[in-house]
Amino acid sequence: MQPTADFNPARVAKSLLRRRREGALATLLRGSGGPFCSLVNLATAPDGAPILLISRLAVHTKNLLADPRMSLMLDERAEGDPLEGARIMLLGTALEARPADIPLLRRRYLAAHPGAEAYIDFTDFSLFTIETSAAHLVAGFGRIVDLAPTDFLTDLAGAAGLLDAEPSAVDHMNVDHLDTLNLYATKLIGAGAADWRCTGVDPEGLDLQAGRTTLRLDFPERVTTAAELRDMLKRMADIARSAA
Question: Which domains does the chain have, with CATH numbers?
Answer without folding.
Answer: 9-152 (2.30.110.10), 160-242 (3.20.180.10)
